[in-house]
Amino acid sequence: MVDLFTEEIYKNVVEGNMELYKQFFSCDPNEEGTIEYWKNAIGLYNRLDDEGKQVLLSIIKSTIVDTISNVMAILDGSEGPEDISIKVQLNDHENDCELQDSFLAYAEDHEEE
Known about the structure:
By secondary structure, the protein is mainly α. It has one domain. It contains 4 helices and 2 strands. Strands 1-2 form a two-stranded antiparallel sheet. Helix 1 runs antiparallel to helix 3. It starts with a helix and ends with a helix. The model has no long low-confidence stretch (mean pLDDT 89).
């Protein structure tokens, strides 16, 4: 159950958001309605060579994976405030502090994608 959950998190959050970022960076920064933040981000992206663009996308992906990993650790109870008790159940099965490990293992298996 944990493996299915972490796979869905990876597909929806990591892969889904990476597709959104790639779409954003392919937009015309002068398109009407583009907010200033994205105008600046698209401008930066467009000034990079192909290798630089790949590095930037890798940084973004790594940031997403690291953030999810940290949230999973909090949900596991292995990180975060000690005075708060969190119990995560997946289909009525308790998680045994394995969300972060399962997610990181899945992410490592899909690094090249």
